[in-house]
Amino acid sequence: MKKFTAFALVLLLVLSLVTFVACDPETPDTPDAPKVVRISTTTSVNDSGLMAYLQPYFEAQTGYKWEISSAGTGAAINSAKYGNADVILVHSKSQEEAFVSAGFGRKVEGYDAERVSFMYNYFVLVGPTADPAGASDAEGVKAAFSAIATGEHTFISRGDKSGTHTAELKLWDASLGLTNDPATSATYTWYVSAGQGMGACLTMANEQGGYCLTDKATFLSYKNHADGDKLPGLSILFEQDDAMKNTYSMIAVNPDAPFVDSVTGEALPAGTVTIDTTAADVFINWMNSETARTLIAQYGIEQYGASLFTVIE
Amino acid sequence: MNAFEKAWVLVTSQDPMLQNIVKTTLEMAFSSSAIALLLGVLIGLVVAYNDFPGKKIVVVIMRTLMGLPPVVVGIVVYILFSGTGPFGHLKLIYSVDLMIIAQVVLITPIVAGMTETSLSPLVDRMRPTLKGLNLSLPKKTALVLFEGKYQLIAVYLFAFARAISEVGAIQIVGGNILNKTRTMTTAIALNYNTGDFSLAVALGIILLAIALGVNLVAGLLQIGLKKRND
Would you call B88 an interface residue with chain A, using a CB distance cutoff of 8 Å? Predict the structure, then answer.
């Protein structure tokens, strides 16, 4: 039975060999290490497919590769504060301004401010098509939210300090006292603080017949999915209110920012954290180029019949 | 298209994106389980073989660490290896290497605990012989490992299963970057977020098929070893 053992051993050897050869990271195709820009962005930009759509154009035109990590706006900004991004692309004005005023932003040559706002769309209020709260008949978005609260209709909140979560909190009646601290909603049984991404929250709203504030891009991509309508129970009930405008901005990370040691919390000496400012400049300039602006304006028309983002002139 | 059809189409289409994801997954799972096996078996064996004061406490600690929450390990490794962390200068954040490090932290205690538990009776039985034969340390170790080979294959399979199915820690330290650190599990989580449920399940089916392959090879190895012993 030695043959049998030998066979199994050889198989295991071949399998591990194939893996290690195939995975050898020391065999780059090009002699020079590729130039890379590290982008920290939000789930709504990434999950809507916009970045994947732009990537080949960017890489072909600039010679840079981009590495995108995506999380809620709060986490995306934090990742930059930890020195893990050259540029951030997020959508929460208050959090962006705090980031800049703390010294983490850098003004790119040719721009007026650290915060480069370049596109927007609108948040939409979605909910059960029957609309028991009558949100679609409300005079403004705040009235629609009041109606949901008054009727104690189920509302699914992101609850994750994302840009969407921050925007949602501003739409509630101040007397409810809702903040991004989950404790403030503890007594409201109708208010579900999900702590999940946009897609997961929409799925939950669909299952539970709840209301939800979402960026239109994610909602449309779920509605018009190749596998069929993923949210058959939900409709857009309210949109296009100025309070629901959702602006996306890019901020280059300042290499001289007051970085602190992530373990001890002590200030780090200048130059400890490596930030590629050239890469950030290339990214921001390209996103503002005519090519990128045209591409962004066209994104979604083919698939959803409407563009998902509007470029700021 | 159902998930099984989608899985089949994915596998047969030779999609470069899928190939890259599978490659990263295998690199991460094989490397981390192999390193964890090396370290864990060593630790487990030392604890099983030796009698020392406080041994029971060490065993309890080891078994507790088997339950390390992956997300916590991910956050701690992330903080340590961030640009602002003590190991930031190594520039390992969002890399496969850092995913392997996080996995080794997670899996080594499991291997150590399982080795200690499964080899203790064997070591106890062999101790008088080993002492009587007056063998050198490497020879003693080799003898115990050889006698415990079935258990060790089972331990490795468990380590590999943990490595290939883990998502919480590697999502955080790897960043799920396309064509760099995206693995099958982080891709599955992403496809859930983007609503591509059937694609997520299709990837899961492929992942299970890979795990099945590894288990079949290990099973053959166990049977082969057994037949040779008989």
Answer: yes
Q: Provide the pLDDT confidence category of residue A86 given band limits of 50, 70 and 90.
A: very high
Beta carbons of A273 and B197 less than 8 Å apart: no
Q: Does B96 sit within 8 Å of A68, measured CB to CB?
A: no
Is residue B71 domain-resident? Answer: yes
The minimal CB distance from A273 to the residues B83, B225, B227 is found for B83
Number of domains in chain B: 1
What kind of fold does domain A35-120+247-311 have according to CATH?
Answer: D-Maltodextrin-Binding Protein; domain 2 (3.40.190)
- Residue range B209-227: average pLDDT? 89
Measured between its terminal Cα atoms, the distance across chain A in Å is 77
- Which residues of A are less than 8 Å from B84 in CB distance? 81-83, 259-262, 268, 272-273
Q: What are phi and psi of A109, to 5 degrees?
A: -55, 130
Residue A13 near chain B (CB below 8 Å): no
- Condensed to tens digits (0 to 9), the pLDDT of residues A226-241 reads 778 989 999 999 988 8
CATH 3.50.50.60 fits A121-245, yes or no: no
Distance between CA atoms of A93 and A16, rounded to whole angstroms? 50
pLDDT band per the 50, 70, 90 thresholds, residue A3? low
Report the residue of chain B nearest A46, measured CA to CA. Answer: B194
Residue A34 above 80 pLDDT?
A: no
| Alpha-carbon gap, residue B184 to B164, rounded angstroms | 8
A7 lies within 8 A of chain B by CB: yes
User: What is the reported pTM?
Assistant: 0.83
Topology agreement, domain A35-120+247-311 and domain A121-245: yes
Q: What is the pLDDT of residues A136-148, one digit of tens each?
A: 999 999 999 999 9
**Residue B71 pLDDT:** 95
Contact yes or no for A211/A135 (Cβ under 8 A): yes
Whether A69 and A86 have beta carbons less than 8 Å apart is answered as: no
pLDDT at A28 > cutoff 50: no
Mean pLDDT for the stretch of residues A202-211:
94
Chain A residues inside the 8 Å CB shell of B79? 82, 262-263
On whether any CB of chain B is under 8 Å from the CB of A162, the answer is: no
Task: Determine the structural domain holding residue B176 and report its residue range.
Answer: 18-183
Structural domain boundaries of chain A? 35-120+247-311, 121-245
CB distance A135 to A147 below 8 Å = yes
Q: Residue B157's CB: how many other CB atoms inside 10 A? A: 18
Q: How does strand A155-157 pair with strand A211-215?
A: parallel
